[in-house]
Amino acid sequence: MISDAHVAQYAAEGCVRVEGVFSAEWVARLLAAVDACAAVFARGEVPAAVMDGGTQNPPSIHFTGEGGVQLRNCVPAHADFVAWLADSPAAAVVGRLTGASSVRFWMDATFVKSGADPEAATPWHNDVCTFPFVGEQLPSFWVALTDVDADNAPMLTLAGSNRDAWRYHSPLSRQDMTLPGYRPWDELLARVAAPDADVRMWEAKAGDILLIHPRTIHASLPRKAGLPGRRVAFTTRWIGSDVVWAPDALSASIPRLSDHPAMRVGEAPPEGLFPVRWRS
C-alpha cells in the first residue's frame, strides 16, 4: 500500500495522499461512530469511555469554532473507534511513512463541515506550535470519511514547510512573552500569502488518507455555496519513536499529562500511558 514514492513525497513536502487505505466498511463504521458521539453531545451529555487505560487525554468534547464543528477525544468513547485502532492498518501506515520504529496513538479530532459559511474554512496554521512533545514523528493522520473535491473544503498545504527549524508563536499561547526558536504568527500568514507560495490542494475520496507533518502549514477551503451533504474528516495524532516530552511556557498544558509523574522532560512517554500500536 505504501510505496517509496509516498515516503519520499512526505519527507520532501510534508504531506502525502495515499488512496484507498480504508475500505467502504471501515468508512461506514467510522462515520457511524462519529454520528453516535455527536448524538450524545446533542443530548447535552459526554460520551463515556469504553477503552481501558492507555490514553491520558481529557474527556471527549464537542464545539463549534474555527473550521466548523469539531469532536475531540472521541476514540476512547466508541467501540468501533477502538476496533479501528487495533485492527485497521492506520498505525502501520503511520510507521511506514514516517520511518518510526514504533507508533503510539495520542489523540483524535473530527471535523464536520456543512453549509457554505466562509468562516467554516479552517484557517492557516500548523499543529506543532502548541504541542508539549517534540520530534519529527508527530503527524496528523487525516482520513476522508466523505468525498472531498475542490468544492467540498479540500485541505491546502504549504509544500516544504515541514523543513522549518522553528515554531510559530501561536495566538492560542500566552502573548506576554516569547521564547527562542519561535517566530511571529504573522510570518506564517505572510508565507502562504506570498505570490510564490507553493500551496497544494488535496482532493480525496472516502477512505483516502493524508499524512501531514506537524510543522507543515495547512488550512482548508470553504465549501461551495449550495453544495449538498457535508465534509467529514477524521484525524488522529500519533507519537513515533523519536518523540519526547518537552513542554515549555508556550505549549499547551494537557490535563492528566502535564503533572503526571511518569512524564519526564526529554524522555519518550511511557508505554503504560501510550501503548505501542505498531512496531517495525
Automatic annotation (TrEMBL):
Keyword set includes Oxidoreductase: yes
Annotated keywords: Dioxygenase, Oxidoreductase
Molecular-function annotations in GO: 2-oxoglutarate-dependent dioxygenase activity; iron ion binding
SUPFAM superfamilies the record matches: Clavaminate synthase-like
Pfam families associated with the record: PhyH
Gene3D superfamilies reported for this sequence: q2cbj1_9rhob like domain
InterPro entries the record matches: Phytyl_CoA_dOase-like
Protein name stated in the entry: Phytanoyl-CoA dioxygenase family protein
